[in-house]
Amino acid sequence: MALGDETRLSLLARLSSTGPLSITVLTEGTVVSRQAVSKHLHVLEGAGLVRATRLGRERVWELEPKRLAEAKRYLDAVSEQWDEALERLRVFVEDPE
Question: pLDDT confidence of 10, banded at 50, 70, 90?
């Protein structure tokens, strides 16, 4: 899954907080190579979470808000299911009978 990698989550967070950025800027201050960042961005692009546009010789990457909102709704639903399962387990474990 595209969101299952720490580097990809970090890239999404950075794009979310700053807006569109080039690979050069996304790579600054990290230990991740430009090639690795590019590979991660292409995975995110394949999942529809980011898109690239040409700006001169560089590609500028930005979030796809609609697709990201869909991912959030899905993750919220999964989180709710886990909360319900944990509550059932708590009741089972704490029930004296």
Answer: very high
Place of tokens 């708590």: 90
Number of neighbours of residue 66 by Cβ within 10 angstroms: 8
What CATH number does residue 6 fall under? Answer: 1.10.10.10
Supply φ then ψ for residue 56, to 5 degrees: 70, -125
End-to-end distance of the chain based on CA atoms, in angstroms?
Answer: 42
Q: Which residue range forms the structural domain that includes residue 64?
A: 2-94
Count of Cβ atoms closer than 10 Å to residue 10 Cβ? 15
In this structure, the chain runs to a length of: 97
Q: How many structural domains are present in the chain?
A: 1
- The amino acid occupying position 4 is G
- Both tokens of 35, joined, read 């090639």
**From the CA atom positions of the chain, what is the Rg in Å?**
18
Per residue in 46-64, pLDDT (tens digit) is 999 999 999 888 899 999 9
